[in-house]
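INSTRUCTION: Work out how this chain folds

Fields: amino acid sequence; protein C-alpha cells

Chain under study, with its fold:
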Amino acid sequence: MKRTMKMAAAVSSGLLIGTFAAAALAAEVGGVKLDDKVSMGAQELVLNGAGVRTKVVFKVYVASLYVPQKSTDLAGVLSKAPRRIQLNLLRTLSADQLVDALNEGLTENNSAAELAAVKPQVDQLATIMKSFKEVKEKDVVTLDFADGSTRVGLNGEAKGSISGDAFNQALTKIWLGDKPVQADLKRALLGA
C-alpha cells in the first residue's frame, strides 16, 4: 500500500512538472501568447525572441522573430532562411500609418544606394499594405522569407509576395539594424 502511494505521488509530481514545463514552452509578451515553434512549409522555425513596440506611451504591436536555429545577431539571422517576423497588433493602425512606419525604418537602417536598389520592392510592399485599409487590434501581420521571396500575410491569409534577398535584408534591418525602430525591441528579438 505504501509503495503504491509513493508511486502515485511520484507520477503526480512528474505530471505536474511536465505540465509546468509544457506551459513554459509558449511565450507571452505584452499579453499576446506566442507559439514557441511555427511551421513554414516543411521547415519548423523556433521563436528567437519577442518584444513590445511602443511609440511615445502607446503599445503598438508585439514583434516576434522565428528562425530555424536561434541567433543573437543580425548576420546570424540573415544567414538563416526561412524566417518570419510576426507583428501582433495591440492597437488599430491605418494602412498609411503602417507604411509610413516601415518606410521610416527602411530609411534609418539602409543606405541611399541600398534603398534605391530595392525601391520597386518597397513600392510593392506599400501597395500590399495599403490594400489592408487598416490593421486592427489583435490582427497578425506576418513577413515570411523563404525561397528568395518575402510573403506578406494578414491573419493567416496570403496578401502578396515580393521577390529578392536584398529587399528582405533591408526589411529585416528595420527591427535588427544599426538604428532599429526600438533598441530594447531589437535586444528582445535577438534573445539578448
